[in-house]
Design a protein that fits this description.
7-stranded antiparallel sheet, Hydantoinase B/oxoprolinase domain-containing protein, Hydantoinase_A, 5-oxoprolinase (ATP-hydrolyzing) activity, globular, 29% helix, 21 helices, 959 residues, alpha+beta
């Protein structure tokens, strides 16, 4: 057990030495430990703890592997064996690819930025390089968030081995992969159809070039069988050929693989089309031209040894020592001397670290700051930060700049390998007389979009001389790769690369009167990408903790009548109701009243509003090409009851009107006050506007009964017509307090479908709702339980968001004096199968304890699993949580929760879960305390030293 890896992570461990003390004791006892503060000193205990867990799991395994062959080699790696940690090896292969790009592709004189596209068997990695390695310090891999410096590489689960399938009238590529066993179907081991098989079937792979010839006959048979099923089940009457089906899967694979790339470019303020695509990996050359065209890129480069570029990059990587210390000072003239001293100390520690690994201080080692130091020293770091902030986020805030962390990266330069610049070589080739290719080694039929089967020349790369120009269609092959040049592109042979010139897009005729399953799948990915990039813009440009840290927002795309087109995986509670909010706005404004540049703000319950603090920001998308007054789509962002307000009119933000709605009007009511954080609210609204603008740019480019705690009955009768596939959800008999039914049944149906389908308005068109739709985010949680109960799909969960709010400030109820303050809101996890998870309608993230305590006047004494609160059964119900918060100043506290009176029921013989409990520990001046039960719903003032303890319900057991 001592050698298995022990992880140590303690709250505030980056500030105090508690972790060091525990680690010292554990090491003396012989334990191999992973200490979170040694791996990373940044604030946020949760990702630090997850990093320690990952390192404790990986390091013993990787150290044992390295020991197995270390005896035969001298230490000469990029990190000394003694200093290696398993956490550092995560994604080291893709990172090697980025280094390979930096050392073999990028030209500092030309300075054209590069997008790396690394396609292999099970996944595809994408990265951006523009003269410097772009680092991130927090990433999520296999649902584990780790804190460690990494190159910014995005991975998508689509590659040559991704399985092709037909489900629910749609083509699907991945997420499953054929892997090393049983391999793709063409390997002759009984495997499924994959992207590799589609390329083989379309003639884009030379079957004889593999060590063992691929089985084309099996692939042909499988595509014929799949095509027959597709033609039988698809909605329209048209007939697809096996070639159409295979080409459709390739188009969907390309759309899937390009989906994360705009995040690396346009998500940071850089135009995607201004880059060069750098394609490598075993399957990259087969898709390079199509990927570049999909992204609007006119040139792609493929290195001659693209299949081993990652290994090549790892061999050329530099030895690095990173030193970092947390800071909490405001950037100012007074702080510069302190920061300079800190930089000097970290630089010295970096040099010492390199010397300890065998490098001398005068052998070309240097120090680089993550934000390059301005020429006039530390004084201009503030301006550099502001410039970078504006470039990435599109705005700046006139606020003080906080120094969170100081990091120095010390580098020992590796041997410099001089390679010819592909850009210089390309210029020479273009200025020189064209070199005709030698006769093709062979010719074969290849299937291309808009061309069908086409006779295509096949060239051996080693037989082509420098400067040779090859007009598509063509294939260029060597021992490790195949490069496909389609009819609308050409190739130029360079000393170390193959340059691909992409001319343009050949438009195909698409029938609009019948749904095309291929186009549905392709545009499903594109529309989802729009919503995801909107969400990233919202998080990056927002100010409040609720949006930036807790991720309490949703982004979506809607049709002109308010029908849902696509939504990012944000808050389930927003999805159904947002459609009604958009439909209301579409009816509220007459044709011609909305113009390009207008942005709408709403959240009145009668207009699709739910939770009053959640504002819906809506922007119409117009047809700029054909009819500038016609609305094609709406993009919306939800994250003050406003029925309908034109917040931005033709591009001008109405700050006075927004202030009136958020501050002046609420303050005009007796005993009420406006928002406590108007500046943050305005900033978040501007973030939502920026998010919607991002969406516009991308689009234009592309029977049971239950009871609520307060006694209202909930009744549901479900009638399903198996022949038509329709269903009626009848809530007749439900009490007078009508919950938000639409969001609830949509969420439940989506949860019970195991396959991946686009959750848009069309897939729910056959569902009818027999009830008046109201707007209450809390009761909708209980409707979810009710629907699951009717289907006997799941036992009851916590049935609540466990809404906790606190703050101070506003108008005094007696004196009327206004006081500045703040407000904080969170939803607390509970039990639902798993322990301590957010369930159903809410999907937010808990604030990290260290960030929570740093930004608010609280001490978090406990946040733990409420052991034994989940119901027993064949499948346990999952335990709730205990959250104990002490306030360091007087605040107003509100709790809105469920399942405090009626326990979460079990299913199929499982036991019920424990009820929740809300406790106020009141502290008196003499130091004594009194424990008070708050019930399920309460608002009360609390003093400094008082605690609120929320014990969330466990889930019911099943079976």
């Amino acid at each position: 057990m001592a050698n298995a890896g022990t992880r140590i992570a303690i709250d505030r461990g980056g500030t105090f030495d508690h972790e060091e003390q525990v680690a010292c004791i554990a090491r003396k006892l012989g334990f191999r430990v992973s200490v979170s503060s040694e791996l990373q000193t940044m604030a946020k205990v949760v990702p630090r703890a997850q990093s320690a867990v990952a390192d404790a799991y990986l390091s013993p395994i990787m150290e044992a592997y390295l020991r197995s062959f270390r005896k035969g080699f001298k230490d000469g790696g990029l990190v000394s064996f003694a200093k290696f940690a398993g956490l550092r090896g995560v994604l080291s292969g893709p990172a090697g690819g980025v280094v390979g790009i930096a050392r073999s592709c990028y030209d500092e004189r030309d300075a054209t930025p590069v997008l790396g596209f690394d396609m292999d068997g099970t996944s595809t990695d994408v990265a951006r390089y523009a003269g410097s390695l772009e680092h991130i310090f927090e990433s999520t891999i296999a649902q584990v968030t780790i804190q460690t410096p990494q190159l910014n590489v995005n991975t998508v689960a689509a590659g040559g081995g991704s399985i092709l399938s037909w489900e629910n009238g749609l083509f699907k590529v991945g997420l499953q992969s054929a892997g090393a066993n049983p391999h793709p179907a063409s390997y002759g081991k009984g495997g499924p159809l994959t992207v590799t098989d589609a390329n083989l079937f379309l003639g884009r792979i030379i079957r004889e070039s593999f060590p063992r010839p691929l089985d084309l006959e099996v692939v042909t048979q499988k595509f014929a069988e799949l095509t027959a099923i597709v033609n039988q089940e698809k909605a329209d009457k048209g007939t697809l050929s096996p070639e159409d089906v295979a080409l459709g899967f390739i188009a969907i694979a390309n759309a899937t693989m390009t989906r994360p790339i705009p995040t690396l470019s346009e998500g940071r303020g850089f135009e995607t089309g201004a880059h060069i695509l750098w394609s490598f990996g075993g399957a990259g050359g087969q898709h390079a031209v199509s990927i570049a065209r999909e992204l609007g890129i006119q040139r792609a480069l493929v290195p001659k040894y693209s299949s081993i570029l990652s290994a090549y990059g790892m061999a050329l990587a530099e030895v690095v020592v990173g030193n970092q210390e947390p800071e909490a000072c405001t950037f100012s003239e007074a702080a510069i001397a302190h920061l300079e001293a800190l930089f000097i100390r970290l630089c010295a520690a970096g040099v010492d670290g390199l010397i300890s690994q065998g490098f001398s201080a005068d052998q070309g080692s240097d120090t680089a700051l993550m934000i390059p130091q301005p020429e006039d020293g530390l004084k201009s770091f503030g301006q550099s930060f502001t410039t970078r902030h504006h470039q990435e986020f599109g705005f700046t805030q006139p606020r003080v700049i906080l120094v969170d962390d100081v990091r120095v990266r010390s580098v020992a330069k590796s041997i410099q390998v001089k390679l010819s610049s592909p850009f210089e070589e390309l210029k020479r080739a273009q200025m020189s007389p064209p070199v005709s290719p030698t006769p093709a080694d062979s010719a074969r039929r290849v299937f291309f979009d808009n061309h069908g089967w086409t006779q295509t020349a096949v060239h051996s790369l080693k037989g082509l001389t420098r400067g040779t120009r090859i007009q598509g269609p063509a294939m260029i092959i060597d021992n490790t790769q195949t490069i496909v040049v389609d009819p609308a592109s050409s190739a130029i042979i360079l000393p170390e690369h193959v340059a691909l010139e992409i001319w343009g897009i050949e438009m195909a005729d698409i029938e609009t009167d019948q749904p095309d399953p291929i186009q549905l799948s392709v545009f499903g990915h594109r529309f989802m990408s729009v919503a995801e990039q909107m969400g990233q813009t919202t998080q990056k440009t927002s100010i409040s903790v609720n949006i930036k840290e807790r991720l309490d927002y949703s982004c979506a795309m809607f049709s002109a009548d308010g029908g849902l087109v696509a939504n990012a995986p944000h808050i389930p509670g927003h999805r159904g109701s947002m459609s009604y909010a958009i439909a209301y706005q579409a009816k509220l404004y007459k044709p011609g009243e909305l113009r390009p540049g207008d942005v709408l703000l709403s959240n009145h319950p009668c207009s699709g509003g739910t939770h009053l603090p959640d504002l819906t920001v809506t922007t119409p998308v117009f047809d700029n090409d054909q009819n500038p007054q016609e609305i094609l789509f709406f993009v919306a962002n939800r994250g003050v009851a406003v029925e309908g307000f034109k917040m931005v009119k033709e591009g001008l933000f109405d700050e006075a009107g927004s202030t009136e709605i958020l501050y002046d009007i609420p303050a005009s009511y007796p005993g009420c006050s406006g928002t406590r954080t108007l500046r943050d609210n305005i900033a978040d609204l501007k973030a939502a506007i920026a998010s919607n603008n991002r969406g516009i740019q991308l689009i234009q480019a592309l029977c049971a009964v239950d009871y609520i705690d307060y006694g209202t009955s909930l009744a549901l009768k479900i009638e399903i017509d198996s022949e038509s596939g329709s269903a009626v959800f009848d809530f007749t008999g439900t009490g007078p307090e009508q919950p938000e039914l639409s969001t609830s049944y949509r969420y439940c149906l989506r949860s019970m479908i195991s396959s991946d389908i686009p959750l848009n308005q069309g897939c729910l068109a056959s569902i009818k709702l027999a009830a008046t739709v109201g707007s209450n985010v809390e009761t909708s949680q209980r409707i979810v339980d009710l629907v699951f109960k009717a289907f006997r799909a799941a036992a009851a969960s916590q049935g609540t968001c466990n809404n906790l709010t606190f703050g101070y400030g506003g108008k005094h109820p007696e004196t009327g004096v206004e006081t500045k303050g703040f407000g904080y809101y969170e939803t607390i996890a509970g039990g639902s199968g798993e322990s301590g998870v957010h369930t159903c309608i809410t999907n937010t993230r808990m604030s990290d304890p260290e960030i929570f305590e740093k930004r608010y006047i609280v001490i978090l004494h406990e946040f733990s699993i409420r052991k034994g609160s989940g119901g027993d059964g064949l499948n346990r119900g999952g335990d709730g949580c205990i959250r104990d918060i002490e306030f360091r100043r007087p605040v107003q506290v509100s709790i809105l929760s469920e399942r405090r009176v009626i326990a979460p029921y079990g299913m199929a013989g499982g036991d019920e879960g424990q009820r929740g409990l809300n406790i106020w520990v009141r502290k008196y001046d003499d130091g004594s305390t009194r424990t008070i039960s708050l019930g399920g719903k309460a608002t009360t003032p609390m003093n400094a030293g008082d605690h609120i303890i929320v014990m969330t319900p466990g889930g019911g057991g099943y079976g």
